[in-house]
Automatic annotation (TrEMBL):
It comes from the Bacteria. InterPro entries: Acyl_transf_3_dom (IPR002656). Residues 21-350 form the Acyltransferase domain. Keywords: Acyltransferase, Membrane, Transferase, Transmembrane, Transmembrane helix. This is Acyltransferase family protein.
Length: 441
């Protein structure tokens, strides 16, 4: 929901006008899918010799790769994010503001919630090393808890190019998508023909912004006029195309394997997910007319960044607590393991609720505002974006360490300071940004 607007001491009232609540539901469903998938991916076992093993046993299953075609929801998340992004940008333009104001808001809302989790990870990894924990276990844990951080780099990059690409979309929507698609293909060709896999990171500039661009079409309402049979055909063709693409071309058959660096199959998957979203949109809209659905979406959605950033550290923490209490671990993928997953999910959900309560004001600060009268210089906003971007980008190709986490926290702190927030409440203004349009994208 949009940020409540305050005038003096008046109570906060959520403004739902102009929101597509169905997309709020999709956004929450995407993040909850990530939480559940990660819960199933982490398998802890105590070996006969007493050593602790952390594995991703699910990936060894014969159906796993095909399952990722339906469980990989990051393309859809960036599509829905694109809807919110262009809506926010257009709101910024209507107020007479520009790129500086738009990026100031976006970087602030992404950088601020990362500070506590990165400080927590830095302290935890340093403490584990100081206590003499097996370096192999520390490395495995760090790889797990650090894996979601790539999203911050990708999303910050998408926000950085959004004003330019939104302008291109308004003038030449199809041509803009074609140019981005050509970039995706060119990078993949160079990457696989030369064997220099690092070149694939360039596709951060093409794959995720292209998927974001799909969300721009959603915001325009262009898909509402597409016949349902055409949408069904697009879904079938997109998913069907993944078969030859991942069979005859050098792409992984797993959409997880195509994630970092991102590749063409994610774009193809995104086309199918876009068409599928258009198909089920009326149903989702009907669901969101119920008070129960709105309550759940608001409850989770208002803490979405907290859920995303903290769920894996808490999953690992639950495993550590189980180990400390001497509770035996079920054999990964055994019947007992599957039956205990809902229990672990419930425990993690309770812990997430606690963290969300404690850190709620970090994600949605009431006393820290972006005063439109105290705008930082343009260069300060770009430096802030770079400061928040560097560590998550480095984590894509380098395993997380205590030093990296601390550096990332410092980068986010620098970003927030450079954006020049004020502790004085701005009366009558939700923020000096587009938060009244979208708070969780």
């Amino acid at each position: 929901m949009s940020t409540p607007t305050r005038t003096g001491s008046a109570p906060a009232v959520p403004d739902l006008s102009g929101r597509d609540l169905a997309l709020d539901l999709v956004r929450v469903a995407c993040v909850m899918t990530v939480v559940i998938v990660h819960l199933l991916m982490v398998a802890v076992a105590v070996e006969p010799d007493g050593t602790i093993g952390i594995s991703r046993a699910l990936e060894q299953q014969p159906w796993f790769d095909t399952g990722t075609w339906f469980g990989q929801i990051m393309p859809l998340f960036f599509i829905v994010g694109g809807f919110a992004t262009i809506t926010g940008w257009r709101s910024t333009v209507r107020r007479g503001d520009g790129t500086r104001d738009f990026l100031r808001s976006r970087v602030f809302r992404l950088a601020l919630p990362t500070i506590p989790v990165l400080l927590f990870l830095a302290a935890g990894l340093w403490l584990a090393g100081a206590l003499g924990v097996d370096p192999a276990i520390i490395e495995a844990v760090a790889a797990g808890v650090g894996s979601p951080l790539w999203f911050l780099a990708a999303y910050l990059l998408c926000q950085a190019v959004a004003p330019f690409l939104a302008t291109c979309h308004d003038r030449h929507p199809v041509l803009t998508c074609a140019a981005l698609l050509a970039g995706v293909i060119l990078v993949d060709v160079v990457r696989y023909s030369t064997g220099l896999l690092g070149i694939g990171l360039v596709n951060l500039v093409f794959v995720w912004p292209l998927l974001q661009q799909f969300g721009f079409f959603l915001a325009d309402g262009r898909l509402r006029t597409v016949p349902r049979l055409v949408l069904v055909a697009v879904v079938l063709v997109s998913y069907g195309a993944l078969v030859p693409i991942t069979t005859w071309l050098p792409y992984s058959t797993s959409m997880l394997g195509n994630l970092n660096p991102p590749t063409l199959p994610l774009v193809v998957l995104g086309v199918g997910q876009l068409a599928l979203l258009a198909l089920v949109h009326p149903l989702l809209t009907a669901i969101m007319r119920t008070r129960a659905a709105r309550a759940v979406v608001f409850l989770i959605g208002s803490r979405l960044m907290t859920v995303y950033l903290w769920h894996l550290p808490l999953i690992i923490a639950v495993a550590g607590l189980q180990l400390a209490l001497g509770i035996p671990f079920a054999e990964p993928l055994s019947a007992a393991w599957w039956w205990t997953r809902p229990v672990v999910l419930l425990v993690v959900a309770v812990l997430l609720a606690g963290v969300g309560t404690l850190l709620g004001r970090v994600e949605h600060p009431r006393k820290l505002r972006l005063d439109p009268e105290r705008k930082p210089a343009h260069v300060a906003v770009w430096i802030a974006l770079a400061s928040a971007f560097i560590m998550p980008f480095a984590e894509i190709s380098h395993p997380l360490t205590a030093t990296m986490a601390a550096a990332g926290a410092l980068g986010s702190i620098i970003a927030v300071v450079l954006l020049n927030p004020t502790r004085r409440p701005v009366e009558g203004v939700a923020s000096g940004s587009d938060q009244a349009v979208d708070q969780r994208s």
